[in-house]
Design brief:
By secondary structure, the protein is of the alpha/beta class. It contains nine helices and 15 strands. The structure holds threonylcarbamoyladenylate and magnesium ion (MG). Magnesium ion (MG) binds next to loops.
């Protein structure tokens, strides 16, 4: 028997209220954030969190980000160091996740942290997400709402395409503003960049007044750090000047191409459209060539995602 398709809810008061009710009943609800669409579940429920892993087909050693309605709630779940508080005050609500030590009596399902003594926290900056978190009244665990290893969703249609029959509902608030997952910073041995993302390293370093350390490779604490990730079905070739036979060209700046991430060379615009462009190009079944993207500001996160999309895949 086929599973029923997800309820598509609008980001109205009644849509948000329905989404919150479904979360309270232990269901999976996909909701928009400013970065990408999340696959949300009650972070205190083992069963609901297990359903996330099941739906994504995600290796269970990968811990999830816990989403909160307000900055003040962070200290209910974690020990916030001075550096963590400084970054939370500067960037929350926003596209930054902080990996901080769990606090005793936190009440989160151990599945959320995959047994680690730390938790990734984030207060998203998206009105529908914040309203949902507020109405729900608790912590929501949410990875990006894509099957594990595939391109992250930046529209409700992307979620329907990947997980449409595996979630109870999708809260649709249109395309995500930032378009790339949050930047992840940990604090073990000093502030450390675990994943580049929607907040640039430069902006974080300016607030901290010191450079971020970069996580050692080989130490996989984020699935975004697996070499092949965010992968379309098609082969991807980077730093292309033009398309070769049969390739489609994803461009940047003033150039002839099939989809241009930003004709004016604006990295914020390019980040916002990146995953949607990859989803679209991938539908053609043709190999994808991608123009060179500058490695500054959000370009660092764009290049991180592109190099993983282009990496050799393991198996099917
Ligand atoms: O923008 C985002 O961050 C989106 C939206 C939905 O908020 N979420 C997202 O989640 O990208 P996900 O699960 O695809 O990536 C979360 C990353 C994972 O790579 C995970 O390994 C890392 O956060 N993470 C979570 N808890 C951690 C911990 N305790 N230590 C180190 N890394 C952790
Ligand atoms: Mg993801």
């Amino acid at each position: 028997m086929a599973l029923p398709a997800a309820e598509i809810l609008s980001a109205s008061e009644s849509g948000i209220s329905r989404a919150a009710t479904l979360l309270r009943e232990g269901n999976l609800v996909s909701f928009p954030t400013e970065t990408v669409y999340g696959l949300g579940a009650d972070a205190r429920s083992d069963q609901a969190v297990a359903a996330i892993y099941e739906a994504k087909g995600r290796p269970s050693f990968n811990p999830l980000i816990v989403h909160l309605a307000d900055v003040e709630l962070a200290s209910e779940f974690a020990q916030m160091s001075e550096d963590a508080i400084q970054l939370a005050n500067a960037f929350w609500p926003g596209a930054l996740s902080l990996v901080v030590p769990l606090r005793e009596g936190h009440g989160l399902s151990p599945l959320v942290t995959a047994g680690l003594p730390t938790v990734a926290l984030r207060v998203p900056d998206q009105p529908a997400a914040r309203a949902l978190l507020k109405d729900f009244g608790g912590p929501v665990a949410a990875p990006s709402a894509n099957p594990s290893g595939r391109i992250s969703p930046t529209t409700a249609q992307h979620v329907i395409g990947g997980l449409g029959h595996l979630v109870s509902a999708i809260l649709d608030a249109g395309p995500c503003r930032v378009g790339l997952e949050s930047t992840i910073v940990g604090f073990q041995g000093g502030p450390t960049l675990l994943r580049p993302g929607g907040v640039s390293t430069e902006d974080i370093e300016a607030v901290l007044g010191q450079p971020l350390k970069v996580a050692q490779s080989g130490e996989i604490t984020a699935p975004g750090q697996l070499v092949s990730h965010y992968a379309p079905n098609a082969a991807v070739r980077l730093n292309a000047k033009q398309a070769r036979a049969n390739e489609l060209l994803l461009g940047f700046g003033d150039m002839d191409c099939d989809i241009n991430l930003s004709p004016t060379g604006d990295l914020i615009e390019a980040a916002a459209g990146l995953f949607d462009a990859l989803h679209r190009l991938d539908q053609s079944g043709r190999p994808i060539a991608v123009a060179r993207i500058p490695d500054t500001g959000l370009g660092q996160a764009i290049n991180d995602r592109l190099s993983r999309a282009a990496a050799p895949r393991n198996g099917a």
